[in-house]
Design a protein that fits this description.
By secondary structure, the chain is mostly helical. It contains eight helices and no strands. The protein has a domain of 143 residues.
C-alpha cells in the first residue's frame, strides 16, 4: 500500500546536496540517443572487424530486444518494488522508485540517471559476453535498442494522451500499475510478461 498521495503536477527533492540532486534528474532524450548510438556503433564495429555469420543477426538482435523486456519486467517487479523491512529500506525504495509513483508526470525523473544505467549496462555486457562470446555483438545491440525503446514508451505514456490505435494498450496497462495497483502490471514495453507471470491486477483490488 502506498503511504503518499499521487501528485500529477508536482515534484520533490531527494537530496539536499545540489550535485546529488542533479544526478537524479535527466532529460529522457539523452539516454535514448546514447543507447541507440551505442547499439549502432557495436553493429558497425562487428561488421568492420569480425567475420560473423550475419544471418544470425536476424535472430540474435530480436532476441536481445525481447530479453531486455524480460529484464525490464524483472527489475521493476523484484528490485524497484521490493518489500522493505525497515524505515531505512523504505527510504531507499522511495528514492529509487517511490518518488516516481508519487510524482508520475515529473518529466525529469522518467528515465534512470545515465550514471547508473551505464554501470548496469556494463554488468549485463559482461554477463552476456561470458555466456555468448562474439555473438554478443549482435545480441547486445538489440538489448540496448530495447532499452531505448522502453524509455520512449515510458516517457510517452506519462507525458502524452493515449493514441486511438493499437498502442493505446501500453497507456492503459501502465496506468493500471500507477493508479490501480502498484504490486501488479510491472511490464511497460511488453505487457505479455504480466499475462505470462499472472501479475495483472485483480478486478476486485481497491486503490
Amino acid at each position: 500500500m502506498r503511504s503518499y498521495k499521487i501528485d500529477n503536477s508536482g515534484t520533490t527533492s531527494l537530496f539536499k546536496n545540489r550535485f546529488l540532486e542533479s544526478l537524479t534528474r535527466t532529460h529522457f532524450a539523452f539516454p535514448v540517443a546514447l543507447y541507440y548510438v551505442i547499439s549502432i556503433s557495436i553493429l558497425i564495429y562487428a561488421f568492420l572487424n569480425h567475420k560473423l555469420d550475419w544471418i544470425s543477426f536476424f535472430y540474435l538482435f530480436p532476441l536481445g530486444f525481447i530479453t531486455f523486456t524480460l529484464v525490464e519486467y524483472s527489475i521493476h517487479r523484484w528490485v524497484f518494488h521490493f518489500t522493505p523491512h525497515s524505515e531505512k529500506q523504505n527510504e531507499i525504495k522511495y528514492k529509487i522508485h517511490g518518488v516516481h509513483h508519487q510524482f508520475p508526470k515529473d518529466k525529469d525523473r522518467l528515465v534512470m540517471p545515465p550514471v547508473l544505467s551505464v554501470l548496469i549496462a556494463l554488468l549485463f555486457y559482461g554477463l552476456f559476453s561470458w555466456l555468448m562470446g562474439l555473438k554478443i555483438l549482435f545480441f547486445f545491440p538489440g538489448f540496448l535498442a530495447g532499452y531505448s525503446t522502453y524509455l520512449i514508451i515510458h516517457y510517452a505514456v506519462h507525458r502524452f494522451h493515449p493514441p486511438n490505435n493499437i498502442f493505446k494498450v501500453l497507456w492503459t496497462h501502465h496506468a493500471l500499475h500507477h493508479y490501480k495497483s502498484e504490486d501488479a502490471a510491472f511490464a511497460v514495453s511488453f505487457p505479455f510478461w504480466d499475462y505470462l507471470f499472472k501479475t495483472l491486477p485483480s478486478t476486485k483490488r481497491k486503490m
